[in-house]
């Protein structure tokens, strides 16, 4: 069910389960597995959701849960024998959690850098296309202007042709006598 949105109930269940596990000294991975079984998601998806969203919302509760865990462990250690081996084990767990968080942050930074690069590419492409569009608009405007000029030129030529045709008609009409017989031209009269 890839791409399914997380509901508030799923986030709340994830937060409660992880915080309870931390308070009781358990591992977050076990909490992720427990939640994954209940909501039909993978433990990896639960871990990612915890680190990316829910942990930020529950930052104070998470710190308190860790404090409670440490206090409870210290109390139990005092009641039992407090050994250097157990302290080292606890420090190793803290170190593993730190490395996991650091690796996750490194991955998020890498994704952010990639998205910034893609954004820069998209902005450059947008700029290029905007420039091409403006050039096209200018070209289109120039074509319209030339077309308009050409139409005016054709109209002027047509008007001149009509004017020339009218003057030729008047000249031709003058060569005929009013009774319809052909009038003699000046050259014929002179000869």
List the main descriptive attributes of the protein structure presented here.
6 helices, single chain, mainly alpha, rod-shaped, 191 residues
What's this entry about, in short?
This protein is mostly helical and 191 residues long.
Question: Could you give the distance between the termini?
Answer: 112 Å
β-strand number: 0
Discrete helix count: 6
User: What percent of residues adopt helix (DSSP H or I)?
Assistant: over 70%
Average pLDDT for all residues: 84
Label the overall shape. Answer: rod-shaped
Pfam family, one: Myb_DNA-bind_6
Coiled coil: 84-132
Protein name: Prespore-specific regulator
Region (Disordered): 162-191
Structure description:
The chain has a domain at 8-70. It has helices at residues 8-23, 28-39, 43-57, 59-79, 84-174, 186-190. It is an all-alpha fold and 191 residues long. 84% of the residues lie in helices and 0% in strands. The longest helix is centred in the last third of the chain and has 91 residues, at 84-174.
Topology of this protein?
Blueprint: H1 8-23, H2 28-39, H3 43-57, H4 59-79, H5 84-174, H6 186-190
Helix pairs in contact: 1-2, 1-3, 1-4, 2-3
């Amino acid at each position: 069910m890839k791409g399914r949105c997380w509901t508030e109930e799923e986030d709340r269940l994830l937060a409660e389960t992880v915080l309870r596990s931390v308070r009781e000294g358990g591992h977050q991975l076990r909490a992720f597995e427990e939640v994954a079984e209940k909501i039909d998601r993978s433990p990896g998806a639960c871990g990612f959701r915890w680190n990316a969203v829910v942990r930020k919302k529950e930052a104070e509760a998470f710190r308190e849960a860790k404090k409670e865990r440490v206090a409870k462990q210290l109390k139990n250690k005092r009641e039992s024998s407090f050994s250097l081996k157990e302290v080292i084990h606890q420090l190793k767990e803290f170190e593993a959690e730190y490395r996991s968080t650091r690796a996750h942050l490194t991955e998020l930074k890498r994704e952010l850098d990639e998205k910034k690069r893609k954004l820069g590419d998209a902005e450059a492409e947008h700029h290029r296309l905007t420039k091409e569009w403006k050039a096209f608009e200018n070209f289109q405007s120039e074509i319209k202007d030339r077309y308009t000029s050409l139409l005016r030129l054709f109209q002027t030529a047509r008007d001149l042709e009509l004017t020339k045709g009218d003057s030729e008609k008047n000249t031709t009409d003058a060569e005929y006598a009013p009774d319809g017989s052909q009038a003699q031209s000046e050259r014929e009269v002179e000869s």
